[in-house]
Amino acid sequence: MRKVYLDANATTKVHPEVVKTMLPFFDQIYGNASSVHAFGRAAKKHLEESRAKVAALIKADSSDEIVFTSGGTESDNLAIKGAAFALKSKGNHIITSSVEHLAVLNTCKYLEKQGFRVTYLGVDEYGIINLDELKKSITTDTILITVMAANNETGTIMPVEEIGGIAKEKGITFHTDAVQYIGKGPFDVKKCGAHLVSISAHKINGPKGVGALYIKKGQKLEPTQQGGHHEKGRRAGTENVPGIVGLGKACEIALKEGEQNYAKIKNLKDKLFKRITSEIKQTKLNGHPEKCLPNTLNVSFNYLEGESIILSLDLEGIAVSTGSACTSGSLEPSHVLKSMGVDPLFAQGSVRFSLQIFNTDEDIDYVMEKLPPIIERLRKMSPVYKEE
Amino acid sequence: MEEYSEKVMEHFRNPRNVGEIENPSGRGKVGNPVCGDIMELYIKVDENDVITDAKFKTFGCGAAIASSSILTELVKGKTVEEARKISNKAVVEALGGLPKVKLHCSVLAEEALEKAIEDYYSKKKAS
To answer: Does residue B36 sit within a domain?
Structure first.
């Protein structure tokens, strides 16, 4: 049975070049990068080279502005808690959006329990915040704005440059969770105006368990993890050199080949969308049709429930995901679709197809061979399906 | 995600008794789109109070579809009073178990049956 992986926003396959690059760092160049001896110095050299590669991908001024973490979630925690606690003498108000990843939302909820006040900006039907609403919600107490660069469920891209401009004007720290965006589109951290940017390796064909946080020079940040003086006192813990080298290589590949890879992927995504809408009735796109990641397609199959669709696709070897309540583990449907005002009946039938750079035309053809009969079968079973 | 049992997958791949019954003896619809589960159960009952046919339609996940499918198998051939005793536990057992987070699907199936039986009795009373 053919296996087709279309769940890149959950995680991606590690690029073969990345695997190759990482291997020597397990049993050949394995020193602790902080050690004085030659084993340590060798590891340190590669650590710093990787740091430069991450900085290059986002056009940071200096490698010093890159701190390595255990992934996107830690980067989000470090950015938001770090800024909040460092700046609490200036104010206690944080602004974010209602469609953020749980790593941001739950960190904000945690900070509310610590006495901070958080504004969760609503979004329009495409999942984009209103810039006027952002401006209006800024107070003299506001110390941090945190808004993602692109949404993991719908792929919708937020106006980060404009948000950065507003933050700069008001002298407020701006963090963006760019975990889904970095590597998939052009990103210039200075143009965007962000002081803090979260990056994750396993979203861009790097290994799991490693990520980075861009911290603009001069940005105050309290560490969230206490211990040794690693990362110039910003993030304690022996550096995961194999992982970091993997992240560096993934960034290097993204910088070199990202544009053409994602142009190809966008074509595949567009082809999939065109075929879905022409071959299957009563579907709805969730998210902005243009301001979207090149690899992400979130479609609702009306009158059906998402898990039954993805389970059926899984039986055919196809991997996708859904925002339905049944898979969230909490019995609540996607908070992202809810914030966008999607009718719960249609939100339940949402399926996210997120392509990675290894997907092919044949993958799309295979999906479109299997998907229409699956939808038909499930619709015959549905007590709420009305043929139009 | 916790794995589904083989029985659940079997009922998901090949659900039994999908459909509607015209002029059913009893009909029960439960659930709502916010929860992500809607089940509709139809029963046909003869003059001896025996359920001769049962059909279902379900908007829901694998566990919901499997629960309603196996429910139709469990009730067919039983008297209405016997069927009434079928609990969600019986549904779960018949399916070889359900992940903890999916137990509510079996509860919904039990509720659909309750409603269908209620409908049957109220129709009977009216006639």
So the answer is: yes
Instruction: Determine how β-strand A117-121 pairs with β-strand A296-301.
Output: unpaired
Instruction: Collapse the DSSP code of A172 into the 3-class scheme (helix H, G, I; strand E, B; otherwise coil) and give the result.
Output: coil
Task: Report the distance separating Cα A200 and Cα B32, nearest Å.
Answer: 37
User: Is A333 in the B-facing interface, judged by CB distances under 8 Å?
Assistant: yes
Query: Domain extents for chain A?
Result: 4-11+258-381, 16-254
Rounded alpha-carbon distances, angstroms, from residue A315 to A308, B10, B32: 11, 11, 27
Contact at CB, B57 and A382, closer than 8 angstroms: yes
Per the domain annotation, does B101 fall within a domain?
yes
CATH of domain A16-254: 3.40.640.10
Q: Which residues contact B97 (CB under 8 A, 6 or more apart)?
A: B5
Q: What does the block give as tokens for A124?
A: 């329009």
Residues in A closer than 8 angstroms to B60, CB to CB, are 305, 307-308, 326
pLDDT, tens digit (0-9, with 9 covering 90-100), for B64-121: 999 999 999 999 999 999 999 999 999 999 999 999 989 999 999 999 999 999 999 9
Amino acid letter, residue A31: G
* pLDDT tens digits, one per residue of B4-53: 999 999 999 999 999 999 999 999 999 988 878 999 999 999 999 999 99
Q: Does domain A4-11+258-381 have CATH number 3.90.1150.10?
A: yes
Mean pLDDT of A109-129: 98
Of B14, B13, B5, B20, residue with least CA distance to B55? B20
Q: Which residues contact B22 (CB under 8 A, 6 or more apart)?
A: none
Q: What is the reported pTM?
A: 0.95
Question: Encoding tokens for residue A203?
Answer: 């979203």
